[in-house]
Amino acid sequence: MRDMQAGLPHRIGEGPMKTVKLTIDDQDLTVPADFSILDAAKKLGIDIPTLCYLNGFDRFTSCMICVVYEENSDRLMPACSAIVAEGLRITTENDLVREARKDALDFLLSEHVGDCEAPCQRACPAHMNIPLMIRQIEGRRLEDAIQTVKEDIALPAVLGRICPAPCEKGCHRGSSDDPVSICLLKRYVADVDLARESPYLPGVAPNSSKKVAIIGAGPAGLSAAYYILRFGHACDVYDKNPLPGGMLRYGVSDEALPKIILDREIERISQLGATFLMGHSLGEDLGWKELNSVYDAVVLAVGKIKSDVFNDTGIELSPQGIKIDRKSHLTSLPGYFAGGNSVSESQLAIRALAHGKNMAFSVNQFLNGESVTGPSSRFQSILGKTQEDEAGEFMKEAENRGRISPVESAQGFTEAEVVKESGRCFGCDCRKPYACKLRQYAEKYQASQRRFTFADRKKFQKNVQHGMVVYEPGKCIKCGLCVQITKKAGEKFGLAFVERGFDVRVQTSLGVPLSQGLEKSAAQCVSSCPTGALSWKDRDKKGEAPREG
Amino acid sequence: MIQETDSILAFVDKVVEGTGTKAGDIIPILHAIQKKYNYLPDEALRRVCEITEITPASITGVSTFYSQFRHTPIGKHLIRVCTGTACHVKGSGLVYDAFCRELHIREGQDTDPEFLFTVQKIACLGCCTIAPVVQIDDVTYGHVKTDGVSHILQDFLRHKTGGAEEPRDRKIPNEKIGEIKIGLGSCCVASGSHKVQQALERSLVETGINAQVKRVGCVGMCHRTPLLEVNIPDREPVLYDSVRPEDVRRILLRHYKPHTLAQRIKNAAYHFIENIMEDPNSNGFTRHPLHMRDPNIQAFLGRQKHIATEHSGQIDPLDLEEYRSRGGFGVLANGLGEMSPEEVIDQVKASGLRGRGGAGYPSGQKWEVVHRSRDDTKYIICNGDEGDPGAFMDRMILESYPFRVIEGMILAAYAVGAHEGYFYIRAEYPLAVQRVKDALKQCKECGLLGENILGKGYSLDMHILEGAGAFVCGEETALIASLEGQRGNPRYRPPFPAESGLWGHPTLISNCETFATVPWIMRNGAEAFAQLGTDHSKGTKVFSLAGKIARGGLIEVPMGITIQEIVYDIGGGIENDRPFKAVQIGGPSGGCIPAELAHTRVDYEDLTKVGAMMGSGGLLVMDDSDCMVDIARYFLSFTQNQSCGKCTFCRIGTRHMLRILEGLCAGKGKQDDLDKLEEIAHKTKRGSLCGLGKTAPNPVLTTLAYFREEYEAHIKGLCPAKRCKELITYTIDETCIGCTVCAQKCPASAIPIAPYRRHMIDQTKCVKCGTCKQVCPTESVKVR
Q: Which residues in chain B have Cβ-Cβ distances shorter than 8 Å to A12?
């Protein structure tokens, strides 16, 4: 091609200068003439997002996420590479900048091959971190596993028996042979825990001296109680029946769910401090006035709405049930939250449990005087359906054997069986779900992976040749930092860009195994990689920020 | 096996001895290895890393970046099907398919089962006027048709010689009896001028006629090559066009008497036999001499103004004495030392010359920046990496006027204070590389280059580097990266190369045409140049006029001329009198200007206003059988393929555009495709790092602006130009006479033979190659 980009006449011809004056976000400043706009902004404490930039390395100007607006030229320029000039008037964030950043992110995401969170976790209504539980089982760390389970599911032993397991329908392993037997693994974790002398009880926050009424001791109500207690608020749980459990007790056969299991898990909730007040019906012996005066918030988990008990209460109904905001579970009456079958009918107990957890989150926000939004959902890159030839890639870190069924199905898995079955997990969740800058910015700029799509995506690939590092080319954004790092570190082979255009990718030089490519600089490559393309094989290793509270 | 490895290692050692061991020597080293082995053996690459400064990372990155380099062995012969724009509109895709079918190459592969031929698509060979073009090893074939591929393969295997080698001089010609000029540009060679030259030399020996044979550069009239001009002192020169080797002897005998009686008798006999053997009505002597006053030639040349292409078709490209006798290097010889660098720059500034590479940045200003820099080390680079499909100006200039470009570079280097210069020339232009090499050698030998040039106290050394197949290296920062031995990734500007270029030093980098214009300006004065053209676009511009045009070729026109004038006055209108639909100007960075806007002037600003761009100077004419959606798809597939892949918007945006365009051409368009396409085009234009990405959307945006209804038709499953394969069907109507030619030629056996009856096409077998339509004598094959 010929050189087609018109020059910037105002730059050409300027000799070297010592300092220049410019304006960034309406603040005047003077900086050395060789500063980039990014450097200058940093001086003012202004943070500009970057992916391909790393202090101490050559500017590559690849990701284009760092663009800022320059007023005089009415242009966007990459802050990492654009050198300051006299009189520049920079705005680091406005609608144009945000749009351009979102565009760049949407493009990057359109070729991003990988899941932030595993499809099982996304499919689980309670959003349980299933892959983590499975790894803990595989590592025989059952005490960690029960914590993981109960972080999101209040009644796992119950669910382990009756859940239709929507998670397993999402499992990538399902498209090569059969999904991992997630539900039974979870049941095993819960059963082992319940069989202990003192089963797991989560820690609770300091007492807030706030009190919440929960109407209905079914799955939604019980779940709400479990999490509200953990937030440090007191809970009174009302139910019209003589015993708590709702549909779990009165709608499920004893064969499917032995009541002793239900009782034991409800007992854990009592131990956390719930008061169960049985034989009370809303609108009959439990009045609205009382609720309003005694409690700081009310959770309505009353099951399917039959009576006209909500007349004149200020709580609006829809044909399906109580009208709520889907995210926060707020009803039309402030301080009143509703979930489970009272808002729409479903046979899924896990959905009711998820509602309970989400209501607890909103109640806590409400009681703390925060804006009530419900739990925030994180950005999800989605791999989509796996393709035939991808199973081999996933299998690199999984055991190639068929799904195990418990020898005695009523008893669930044995210890030997769970270890075997957990080894089947592909581990398709990203190794950097928190440290990934691409995900962070995708959240910040509300990027969408579905805005630009390809009919056929690139193949999922995983390189596990290195003892400590995993490389997933599909998650690479071609920032080239690792290429520069290996060069600077004096690696004999190191990493290199190969091919060009849409097919450009990072590989080891001369095709040597990754272990030879990264002999000295693996740690720096992993920590500098802005995405999950390069990560530690051992997921607990440093380099990934701890899970947020 | 071990022996083989040893010999590879020994070969690499030898290569490196010649090229050097610096990081910047990587591309020549890789070229040398590939030339020997046809690909880059892994052992060779490892050896290079052992004995040079080149690292494994760098050799991996570089050898996979450039499309000329291969990492796996290929067939014995390499067939390169040109997919440049002109070739594309003339059906090169079908030609490619035809080669694959003929060689029984399986889907997804590129080499025949016997490993004799590998078929490859190549961006552009720059022989646009004889499109479609195919190159097998170093033999070029023009005007290739789908039903002619087996003939070409046979011809190649029979001859396996020819190509771009330079002719040998004959002994002691007699100047008095005149000279015979033969055009030996790449187009001419591809059209067979090399064989014509061989026939000429042979005939001269046989007849004893002692006329001088003079090879000349491009005549510009590429549509009529091979050309042969007989010049006898005191007589009107006579030009023969489309000459075949078998015509040469008769042409000679028309002008000259054989030398001796014996030869005269022999010739008479030859004549007699030839007349008997040949059917005078078909394959006989059908070439007519053209006098230079022929109205067609007058029209073709009349509106032109030759500055960069001065003495077009008259001078031997490598005859330094002749070049000097016509004023070449005159300013240098007289002026250097007397004229200060500032005075040279003032002249260039006053001339109003703007960069001919595309952006049109004022040359004088650029020179001044480099001149003013206090750095002791400065460089000068000639950008000859003409990658635009459909453009061949740089090739023609370098092949035909190497001394002129060198002269311009010396003047520029003197003005800015550079003492080292580089030619960066596409590897697809071997003849240009060879001529520049020879010209540089001659210049060094006679003191025009090197230490203390012409005794004026100024020194300049010049080198040449071949590219390796990367369009993006035409972007100046990418070209510099390539010269430094890196992947051709552009970088953010500023700093511009004029401030910080090659190895971080101030660098004047300009296109060949810009340099070729400078000697004229210096000789004739800035005023003379500035008188030509428009207010802001001065002088002339060289275009390669190709596509559906009656008289295609290399033309140089004054700025300000309209597209209409170029197409009709110079080009003689549309080929076969079809309706004029549009011109594509500026290649993959430019746009399509519809016939309604043909009054647009050739002017940097005017062209930009209509969404196109002066850009490359490729000027491709299209008729009603060209589909605008297909053209947009064609360019996007090119730019997408040539993107370096560094920045997000170009790497991914061009791919998304291509995906939508491919869908449209395949009849899978959706209603919101056009909005999405436009959106992505604007975003890619705005967000990309370099000129490639910033201009890649232009072909899409202009066709969307001017031919939106064609896009809409595609969404409905119709291709109005009847071009998009998936949207058309071939049928044979009732006028079929049952001659069976189509059935015999059909490569897919989709037409059952039915003598004297109307033939039918089996649509399930039809591959839509168009062969039946080409061969049908009664035009009974219809496309719907």
A: 365-366, 369, 494, 496, 498-499
Helix (H/G/I), strand (E/B), else coil: B331: helix
Alpha helix stretches (DSSP H) within B327-449 = 330-335, 341-351, 363-372, 393-400, 402-416, 430-445
pLDDT at B174 over 80: no
Best mutation target, A4, A34, A105, A520, to test chain B (most B CBs within 10 A): A4
Residues β-bridged to residue B623 = B580
Q: How confident is the model at residue B175 (pLDDT cuts 50, 70, 90)?
A: low
- Residue B561's pLDDT band, with cuts at 50, 70 and 90, is very high
Domain A119-199+387-422 has CATH 1.10.1060.10: yes
pLDDT of B284 over the 70 cut: no
Which member of A107, A486, A492 has the closest CB to residue B652? A107
The dihedral of CA A469, A475, A480, A481: what is its sign? negative
Residue A36 DSSP symbol: B
Quick one: tokens of B223? Answer: 């549509």
The residue length of chain B stands at: 784
A491 → chain B, closest CA residue: B57
Contact yes or no for A342/A376 (Cβ under 8 A) = no
DSSP state of A411: G
pLDDT at B454: 83
Shortest Cα–Cα distance, B240 to chain A (Å): 35
Q: What are the residues facing B231 on neighbouring strands?
A: B179
Separation between Cα atoms, residue B721 and residue B633, nearest integer Å: 14
- Domain boundaries of chain B, sorted by first residue: 2-65, 77-159, 175-293, 320-524, 540-715, 729-784
Confidence (pLDDT) at B275: 43
Please check whether the domain covering B540-715 is classified as CATH 3.20.20.20.
no
Two tokens, residue B343: 């005075």
Residues of A in contact with B649 (CB under 8 A): 64, 103-104, 107
ipTM attached to this prediction: 0.91
- CATH 3.90.550.10, applies to A19-93: no
Closest residue in chain B to residue A8, using alpha carbons only: B494
DSSP state of A296: S
Distance CA B93, CA B109 (A): 16
The CATH number of domain B175-293, selected from 1.10.760.10, 3.40.50.1980, 3.40.50.10420, 3.40.30.10: 3.40.30.10
pLDDT tens-digit profile of B447-468? 999 999 888 889 999 999 999 9
Q: What's the rounded mean pLDDT across residues B402-431?
A: 95
> Could you tell me what percent of chain A has a pLDDT over 70?
95
For residue B616, the chain A residues in CB contact (below 8 A) are 1-2
How many CB pairs (< 8 A) connect A and B? 218
pLDDT tens for A188-214 read 999 999 999 999 999 999 999 999 999
pLDDT of residue A309 exceeding 90, the answer is no
How many CB atoms are closer than 10 A to CB A267?
12
Q: How far apart are CA B257 and CA B279, in angstroms?
A: 25
Using alpha carbons only, what angle is made at residue A546 by residues A544 and A548, rounded to the nearest 5 degrees?
Answer: 130
Element (H, E) at A259: helix A259-272
Candidates B40, B60, B656, B683: best to mutate against A (most CBs of A within 10 A) is B60
> Using one digit for the tens of pLDDT, what is the confidence trace for B312-365?
888 899 999 999 999 999 888 776 768 899 999 999 999 999 999 888 899 999
Neighbours of A183 (CB within 10 A): 23
Where along chain A do its domains lie? 19-93, 119-199+387-422, 211-367, 451-536
The CATH number of the structural domain formed by A451-536 is 3.30.70
Q: Which CATH architecture has domain B729-784?
A: 2-Layer Sandwich (3.30)
- What's the token pair of residue B727? 């949207």
